[in-house]
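Below is how a single chain appears once it has passed through the pipeline. First comes the sequence as given, then the structure the pipeline wrote out for it. We keep one example in the README because the format questions we get most often are answered faster by looking than by reading.
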Amino acid sequence: MKPSEFREMSNEELAQALAEAKEERFNLRFQVATNQLDNTSRLTQVKKDIARILTIMREREMASSGAEESA
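Resulting structure:
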């Protein structure tokens, strides 16, 4: 997914997407270990999606804490 698609999600949806991506990464790692994974680039895509989600969650956290400090 693109970062803009993740930014449109709510915090709950982001948390759900993060859990799903981590589960998919876990399954892909087992497929790599047993030589069952055909599309190895999928593992890299999932890792990048996880990083994007965590980055957006952190941006929102920083924005909310910045708003509290200025108030």
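Helices lie at 3-7, 11-33, 41-70.

See the next section for the split statistics.
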